Every structure is written in C-alpha cells, then in structure tokens.
Amino acid sequence: MATKVKVGIIGTGMISRVYINGCRKFDILEIVACADIDMERARAAAQQWNIPTACTVEELLADPEIQIVINLTIPKVHAQVSLAAIAAGKSVFCEKPFAVTLEEGQRVLEAAQAKGVLLGNAPDTFLGESHQLCRKLIDEGEIGTPIAAFACFAMHAEGGGPNRDFMFQRGAGPLLDMGPYYLTDLINMLGPVQRVTGTVRTPFTEHIVQRGEHQGRRIAVETPTHITGVFDFAGGATGTLVFSYHMHRGHSLPRLEIYGTEGTISVPDPNLHGGLVRMSRGGEDWQDLPQPWSNDFTRGIGVADMAYALLEKRPNRASAELAYHVLETMLAFEQASLNGTHVQIASQPERPAPVLAGQLDRS
Fold first, then answer.
1. Residue 44: its pLDDT value, please?
2. pLDDT, position 150
3. Antiparallel, parallel or unpaired: β 68-71 and 5-10
4. Among the residues of the chain, which ranges form H helices?
5. Which region holds residue 133: left if phi is over 0, alpha if psi is between -120 and 50, else beta?
6. Comparing 171 with 181, which gets the higher pLDDT?
7. What is the DSSP string of 264-284?
8. Which residues contact 147 (CB under 8 A, 6 or more apart)?
C-alpha cells in the first residue's frame, strides 16, 4: 500500500515495545516519533526501536505530518494527554482505561467530536481472529440464543515496584485494569450492557509487597480490589463477573464463557488477540475449533483500523464510544455496591462491525 499514516507515540514505558512491534505488522502505519516526560527514556526508545525522532510531547503534537497519536501514559493522565492531542488536531488511540471518571471521558468525547478527529481506545484484542471467531459463532446461532456469560480474572497480588503503584490507585485495580479486556469482548459478542449491580471490597488499605527486591514495601490502596458483579445486556442475556487481587489460586482462571440455549463457547484469554476457541453443543464433548485465518495479530490492530477508517471515512471499531460504555459499566459496579441498587447504563453504543478474514492488510 502506497499510503502511509504517520503515527507518534506518547509514553515510552513497558507497553510501548508491544505497540511498536504490533504497529509495524501493518503496511498502513509508519511510526515517526516518540515522546515522554523523561527525555532520556524517549531517546533510548527511539534508538532501540529505530524511530526517527525522539522529542518532547509539545514537539510531537506540533508536527503537522503526524495524524494519529498513541497515548501510552499512566491511567490518571490519559484524558489530559488525549485532550492535548485532540486540541492539536490529531486522532488519538489511547491505552485503557479511557479515563478515570465519566466526567473526564465525556470531555474527551466532546472534544473529539468538536474537532472532527477519530478517537480510539484499547483494548483492541477483540479484533483478533479468535475473538472474531467467537462472535461469528454467536451471530450464526451455533450455540442458539445467548442466555448468560461468565467472566473471571483472579490473582494474588504479591509484587510491586514503584512502577506498579498505579495498580492500586484510582483508575486501576483489578476491574479497571483488566476489566476492559473482558467487557469489551463481551460487548463485541453480545451487545451493550443495560444495567449492573454488585458488591465491591477493599480488604486492605495497604498492599505489602511479599516478594522480590521490593519485599516489605507498602503501597496505599485507593480502589476496590475484589469485585463481584451481575449485569444485564440490552439483548436479554445476563452476565456475572469476579475480579480480584486476593485469590491465591483458582481452577482454570482467568475465564470467559458464553452460555446459549444450544451450547457453550469457551472464549480464549481476552487479554490476548489469539488463543484456542472451544465449543460444546448439546452437552457433547468440547471441540477445539480451527482458526479461520492466521493468528498473528497483536496490539496495533486498533491503530491500523483507525488509519483505514481515516482513509475510508468510516468509524473505527475500537471506538471511544465503546470505551466510554465500558468505563461507565465498570464504575457502576462500585456505585451499585455503595447504594445497594441496580445502576442503569446510559450509554448504548452499537456493536463494532466484525472483522472479516484478510480485511485488514498486514505486511
């Protein structure tokens, strides 16, 4: 493809490597600059990954050739950085979560609409082949009418250097950190969430690091770390979720399953683009299903889809509206727990268009 969409990255921490490698799988994307509040880190990333320019955030945003900014900053400044990029006339693809409050998220949405730029958000794992196969099976009625879904992410948090403090801050915790993968995938397969209820707990006000070089270090816990929720999809199915930092060991966790009138789909880890899809129909043994096409997507597919959307003048699939809906849904579990009630979810986005085999070209 002759057309290239130029991309700049803000934030050169751990996840930037994955995005750089992932974006370079797509002919349409060209990473031309990276920026960080720590210029030494930006220069090191540019040298390591052969990115032409390392610069300040202000310099990156002032570059008229950059059309898409990938926002890989920490959660509490996602909205701030996205707003600055939008003000500079850039389309933005942001890491999850979309924002840490609904008010922040709404400001970002309104700014992008007013500026006429595209806004996208991680996760884009639901665009991977395995998750698109699950959606195809559901859409084609392979398990009948969906009745229920179950999602569980459980771990026992033991480590924690200074760069992991965000895991226990507002805007993270097990649900806001990992929930976007599961809920985005569920909404892709079953449509938007209509209402939620649940119970959240914060068993400890401090996390004490239990192993590694930082053993004994104390981290203030600012967010719920054990969440149990029940939610209703607008299409009629119900869902149950458990997200926790306090479960030492579980059987076959993490887990995501869809239950229908005629069978069950075992969905692969939604934190990954690929993985084994299994289906059981009518109580029969599990079947391992072959992938419909090659399974080599990684983070970057959402950015590539945004680039194609810019050229084709269409909505991008991993959209801000979808991310805002996921954020509203996640925050509603704590609200429901505090108020002892169901919470209605106001945002009701359309399901993103499915990805067909070969639809997004790769290099």
1. 97
2. 97
3. parallel
4. 14-23, 39-49, 57-62, 78-87, 102-115, 129-139, 173-190, 301-312, 320-339
5. alpha
6. 181
7. EEEPPPTTSS---EEEEETTP
8. 237, 238, 259, 260, 261
Amino acid at 88: A
Distances in Å between the Cα of 228 and the Cα atoms of 157, 199, 324, 335 are: 17, 5, 21, 13
Question: Which of 328, 326, 321 minimizes the C-alpha distance to 103?
Answer: 328
Q: Tell me the per-residue pLDDT of 106-155, one tens digit each, with 9 for 90 and over.
A: 999 999 999 999 999 999 999 998 999 999 999 999 999 999 999 999 87
CA distance 139 to 150: 18
pTM of the model: 0.90
How many CA atoms, within 13 angstroms, populate the side-chain half-sphere of residue 29? 32
CATH tag, 126-289:
3.30.360.10
Tokens 């880190």 belong to 41
Tokens linked to 262: 């005629």
Three-class SS state of 349: coil
Report whether 181 contacts 270 (CB < 8 A). Answer: yes
Domain residue extents for the chain: 5-121, 126-289
First to last CA, the chain: 9
Q: Is it the case that residue 363 has pLDDT exceeding 50?
A: no
Q: Which two tokens stand for residue 197?
A: 């209820």
Q: Which two tokens stand for residue 37?
A: 């509040």
Work out the number of other CB atoms within 10 angstroms of the CB of residue 287: 12
Q: Give the separation between CA 352 and CA 363, rounded to whole angstroms.
A: 24
Q: Tokens representing 39?
A: 């210029």
* DSSP for residue 354: P
Q: How confident is the model at residue 93 (pLDDT cuts 50, 70, 90)?
A: very high
> Using CA atoms, how far apart are residues 136 and 140, in angstroms rounded to an integer?
6
Q: pLDDT grade, residue 5 (50/70/90)? A: very high
| Token code pair at residue 205 | 């006000």
C-beta separation of 134 from 187 below 8 A:
no
Q: d(Cα 334, Cα 228) in Å, to the nearest integer?
A: 10
Interacting residues of 332 by C-beta distance below 8 A, sequence separation 6+: 196, 343, 345
Residue 44 neighbours by CB distance under 10 Å: 15
5-121 — its CATH code? 3.40.50.720
